Each structure stands twice: as structure tokens, then as C-alpha cells.
Amino acid sequence: MADRAEQMTLDDNLEVDSKATANNVRNFLTFKFEHFQNYAGLNVSDLSVVDDSHLSSPKMDASGVSSHGGINHTESSFNRIMEAEQACKAIYKTIKNCRNGGRTPYQKILSEAYLHNMEDYKIQQELGYEDSQYYIKKRQALCEFADRFEKWKDWYSIPYFKDLHIYRKNKNGV
């Protein structure tokens, strides 16, 4: 049986490549998510309790202009930090929004791997899966993340993030 992502056709010419999409999401969660957390000064534990009412801004010059050539570097830096915070929240919400049923433990797999940095073999043991079965479920979880991230990146006003899906070309090469 094919993965859900493999079956999902967005139009006649585009079909999701589940293996390439899973690799793309894995790289995004492994490297970009960590970068955003570092830049925003957040830990995963911060994300579990932060909501949109807990944001605070850095102290800004009363005039709004610093002494560096008339450019407000604090505001620019603050904007980048806010974008990194929004990205972290979108990623966290996406993971927590993934299915977590008996046959679809996607939230558990993603949470343990990318929020708690648990190694795959330990997650596999916790879930009671053999190697091949676990990696199929992890690929499905990563593809579900790509699907659901589309909603949460818009929700947190970061729609400029690129689509994490990788598409196959149709038989005509289009």
C-alpha cells in the first residue's frame, strides 16, 4: 500500500515524492528548527508553555533610532527574533497537531525525535516496531508534517517559508 503522501495528487502534473519529501522535512527539522530555536533564544520547554500573549520586546531607544547611522538595529534584530519565534511556534504546533493513534503514532515519533532529541532506536523500542516498520512510520510522519505545516506557517504569519513537499514530474516530463 502506498503512503498517503504518494497518493495525494495536487493536480494532474504534480505528485508528492514521499521519500524526497521525508528527507527534506528531516533536514528542515534537524537543522533549521535548531537554528530558529537558537536565534530566538528558545528551548523546546519554552515552546510548550508559550502562547501568543507571552511575547516581549527588547528595550528600544526612545527615538527609535540608534547611534549607528540612523538605522534602528534593535528593531531589525527584534524583527528577526520575532520571525524565528514564530517559526518555532509553527513547527511545534505542527508536530503537536499530527495524528497520534495506535496505527498512526506520528506525533509521538516527531515529538520524541525533534523535540526531545531521542534516538530512533529508542523510539522504535518504545513503540514496539521492527526496523523497517518504524522507518516507514517515520517517513509517513515526516510527510504528514509537510502537509500540516502549510496551515501552521500561515497561522503564525510565516507564509514565505517554502513548501516542504518535493514533487515528481509527470510522465511527460512536466
Protein traits:
174 residues, mainly alpha, disordered N terminus, single chain, globular
Strand content: under 5%
Mean pLDDT: 82
- Write out the strand line-up for the largest beta sheet, numbering strands in chain order: 1-2
Low-confidence blocks of residues: 1-7, 53-68
Order of helices and strands: HEHHHHHHE
Helix content: 55-70%
The major beta sheet can be summarized as:
2 strands, antiparallel
Outline type: globular
Question: What's the alpha carbon Rg, rounded to whole Å?
Answer: 19 Å
Q: Compute the number of strand runs.
A: 2
> Roughly how many Å apart are the termini?
26 Å
Structure description:
With 174 residues, the protein is mostly helical. Helix content is 58%, strand content 2%. It has seven helices and two strands. It has helices at 4-7, 18-40, 44-49, 73-97, 106-115, 120-127, 131-155; strands spanning 15-16, 167-168. It has a two-stranded antiparallel sheet. The relative contact order is 0.19. Mean pLDDT is 82; it is low at 1-7 and 53-68.
Q: Helices and strands in order, then pairings?
A:
Elements: H1 4-7, E1 15-16, H2 18-40, H3 44-49, H4 73-97, H5 106-115, H6 120-127, H7 131-155, E2 167-168
Antiparallel strand pairs: 1-2
